[in-house]
Request: fold
Amino acid sequence: MTAPLPTHLNDPLILYGESFASRLLLGTSRYPSPQVLETAVQRARPAMITASLRRQGSAATEAHSGFWELLKKMAVPVLPNTAGCHSPQEVITTAQMAREVFETNWIKLELIGDDYTLQPDTLRLVQTAEHLIKDGFKVLPYCTEDLIVCQRLVDVGCQAVMPWAAPIGTGQGPLNPYAMRLLRERLSVPLLVDAGLGLPSHACTVMEWGFDGVLLNTAVALAQDPVAMSSAFAAAVHAGRQAFLSGAMQPQDSAQASTPLVGTPFWHHE
Reply:
């Protein structure tokens, strides 16, 4: 009799029709060294790793730098992002350059509206996403937990949405559980939590709510031991997904006996 496959192999993450074994995505910035980054990626085995063309350099010579060579060596699909862009035209230009450098149509759309919180410019995000989709990109838009914005992104063709849990780099975890759970209830496309998670327990929580994946950078890169933390987050994402699929019990208002009263005398009173 053939042993069943591990559950995670029967439950791939599907984005734009492509299948990924992992539901964890990792960023590549702020690690102590390239060696630590490489080992953390090897340990976590993420679906994709993100890289910013603007932050790493867009000149042709940069495409052959040590960083780009490291990305190739890790043999993990690269998700270019438009980090640092403050206008739709900056986003479009950066995305087109990234497509040439990385030879991929995948793009993480970041259009920053506020330099302090790095909150997305939600007023121009939808039209920018629509332009990129018409240009052939597979767009993963970074956005807030606003239901209407997320729905509009889906309406223009985004087949997945990436709402934040909290502002980038804060590590505070989900600040608006009601809004995030409402998103999961109302939207049928894959939802990946991007930004604001600081602990493996945060990742496990959003996965228990039914989110389809998480994208991490700072929480791993700035940990005292990034390699061990990447492993912890990978385990947490898997555990949260398993809990969601398993159907957790509903909270009760009063204590419920968990041990059956086997062998207890039964007295019948007239």
About this structure: The longest strand covers residues 138-143. Strands lie at 13-15, 18-20, 24-26, 48-52, 78-81, 106-109, 138-143, 162-163, 192-194, 213-216.
